[in-house]
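[step 3/7] fold_predict: job queued, chain A
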Amino acid sequence: MAQIMAPTTQCQMRITKHSLNASPMTAKTWSSLLLKQKKSGNTKSLSKFRVYALKSENSTINRLENLLNLDVTPYTDKIIAEYIWYVLMPETFDGGAQKDGNTRTVLYSKFAFFFNLLIGGSGIDLRSKSRTISRPVEHPSELPKWNYDGSSTGQAPGEDSEVILYPQAIFKDPFRGGNNILVICDTYTPAGEPIPTNKRARAAEIFSNQKVINEVPWYGIEQEYTLMQTNVQWPLGWPVGGYPGPQGPYYCGVGADKSFGRDISDAHYKACLYAGINISGTNGEVMPGQRITEQTGVVLTLDPKPIEGDWNGAGCHTNYSTKSMREEGGFEVIKKAILNLSLRHKEHISAYGEGNERRLTGKHETASINTFSWGVANRGCSIRVGRDTEKQGKGYLEDRRPASNMDPYIVTSLLAETTLLWEPTLEAEALAAQKLSLKV
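[step 4/7] structure written:
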């Protein structure tokens, strides 16, 4: 703090921005001030001076940062566990984070939580609160269940408002460091029933089916997002109220005039690796601005089409394979899966994200939302199969329909259900195969 004395009358001080950043006054400075007072003939005693305290921004920020970065491990075994959960209202969806297509999935998708926690997605109602734990832990089963007021989140009535948090996964906390952890939770009633917005519970049922277990499904979720300027709600890097040059140079672009928000993307990347998340990589997308945002004053949106017009939307393409698809003869299994997906197109579209109709128009590397299609190396199809998969006769498929605001619990479990558990009638299968020119 810097202190400045001003007379109680006839003296007003204008504090400039420079003075707020000034260092505290020294004895020499005080002598100079008092000397000037004497020269001006003002001999009023100091007791008639009023003291004003000026906040030194740099000093306060430095002190705060020192406390935030304080390592308490030499002094206590206690840690901070940040319990995190979603508050999803009916008919809304949330997002996921990019994951290697060759990494086996688990019974729930922790990447959606982590993506939104680190990046700070908007439109995603992410909540958290901190709890002191007596010692470091290695498994979520060592953590106590907790609760929160569901009436304050629109998930429970006021007369019976308690919602129970079940810890499901833990990660190293890249924000607090040390032994502190992030605890990913899902939500239940006091009677032990999953609340309606708990999408993980249904996904866990599907993934625990023996048929699904035997097929060892793998998922690679490619999360696209758009960074927005907070003051104008306009994409980062775009001139305010105007438009940048046409799409073309921005995809995987380099340079200050082509790549916007790289520092945010890199910070998220490193935070994921620190926490132990399997993230395969990052790149700038086709639309400029499609690239931790709380700290940088930038807003992230998962809207599938944040800017109308001749710009790509934001999706969450999901790579998917099963054990049978990855083995010899797997391409035939992929074709059968595509056939099943075509017959449940409407069910998938209804679960693949809000506002997706603004993105799936048949333009900008999308298929029409109303028509199912597939193709090899065709990014304008509902389902894309890679050239390598075709050449090797085995591999994976890419579902390009999910929007950027999709719920990975829903999408991953629905893919498994449709391709492994759901069986169409022979008649429907034959008609679909003919329509898609699929010989199965």
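[step 5/7] annotate
Residues 62 and 204 are 46 Å apart (CA to CA).
Residues 262-275 form the longest helix (14 residues).
exit 0
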